């Protein structure tokens, strides 16, 4: 787990046993973990502290995805026999902080066996863009010009929907929109998402999130 903390740019203290313990905790504790993942790091990063300050009125919503609710079938993955459509969710955000030059969107599985696993990451979204349509990750016609996607934790340069092992506890997913001063990030299509994530955490001037979950019964 210490290796994973270094890999994802997280402080060494996140390798404590308490971080591992969340895998078997109930939903409330997992939700606190999601919150800590974004806001707890503000204590060790001035950039994240400024980001938290700019987040008060920055809101992320979705017509289909809700925090604390199950991911809709359309957004669930298809690998390993999962019964979804593997479409990235529709997202809407507003009240981005002043000075925003672009946005990025990410989705992470916080309960993966190997630590944080990135399911999706899209960046270089113009500051004038405040929404993404359903399946924008896989349909170029639904993406704004100039949008770029990172390589996710499953090796794809697109979206890989939730698909935890059958019978296991629910996995919790952190969907985040990041506001950045940069109009263009210094990364090309297919750059590993964990590398882009380190940049986002260090340069974001605001962020907003949703935290749905999904389990295979």
Explain what the structure shows.
Strand 3 and strand 4 form a beta hairpin. Residues about 1-45 have low confidence and may be disordered. With about 220 residues, the protein is an alpha+beta fold. Helix content is about 20%, strand content about 20%. The protein has helices at about 1-5, 15-20, 25-40, 45-55, 195-205; strands at about 60, 90-95, 100-110, 115-125, 130, 150, 170-180, 205-210, 215. It contains five helices and nine strands; from the N terminus they run H-H-H-H-E-E-E-E-E-E-E-H-E-E. Strands 3, 4, 6, 7, 8 and 9 form a six-stranded antiparallel beta sheet that branches. The chain has one domain: PEBP-like (Phosphatidylethanolamine-binding Protein, Alpha-Beta Complex).
How is this structure best summarized?
This protein is of the alpha+beta class and 217 residues long. It is built from five helices and nine strands. Helix content is 20%, strand content 22%.
Average per-residue pLDDT, rounded, comes to 82
Specify the structural class: alpha+beta
CATH topology annotation = Phosphatidylethanolamine-binding Protein
Q: Percent range for helical residues? A: 10-25%
Question: How many separate helices?
Answer: 5
CATH class: Alpha Beta
Task: Estimate the global geometry from the Cα principal axes.
Answer: globular
What order do the helices and strands follow?
HHHHEEEEEEEHEE
Largest sheet: 6 strands, antiparallel
List keywords for this structure.
six-stranded antiparallel sheet, 5 helices, globular, 217 residues, alpha+beta
């Amino acid at each position: 787990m210490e290796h994973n903390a270094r890999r994802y740019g997280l402080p060494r203290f996140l390798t404590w046993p308490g971080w591992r313990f969340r895998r078997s905790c109930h939903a409330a504790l997992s939700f606190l973990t999601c919150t800590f993942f974004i806001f707890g790091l503000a204590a060790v990063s001035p950039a994240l502290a400024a980001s938290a300050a700019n987040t008060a009125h920055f809101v992320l919503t979705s017509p289909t995805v809700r925090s604390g609710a199950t991911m809709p079938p359309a957004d669930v993955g298809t690998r390993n026999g999962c019964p979804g459509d593997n479409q990235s969710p529709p997202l809407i955000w507003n009240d981005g902080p002043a000075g925003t030059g672009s946005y990025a969107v990410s989705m992470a599985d916080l309960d993966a066996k190997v630590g944080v696993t990135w399911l999706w990451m899209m960046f270089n979204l113009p500051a004038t863009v405040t929404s993404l349509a359903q399946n924008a990750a896989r349909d170029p016609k639904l993406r704004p010009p100039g949008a770029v996607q990172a390589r996710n934790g499953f090796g794809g340069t697109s979206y890989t929907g939730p698909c935890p092992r059958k019978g296991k506890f629910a996995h919790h997913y952190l969907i985040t929109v990041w506001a950045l001063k940069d109009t263009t990030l210094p990364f090309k299509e297919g750059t590993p998402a964990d590398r882009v994530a380190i940049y986002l955490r260090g340069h974001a001037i605001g962020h907003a999130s949703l935290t749905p979950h999904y389990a295979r019964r």
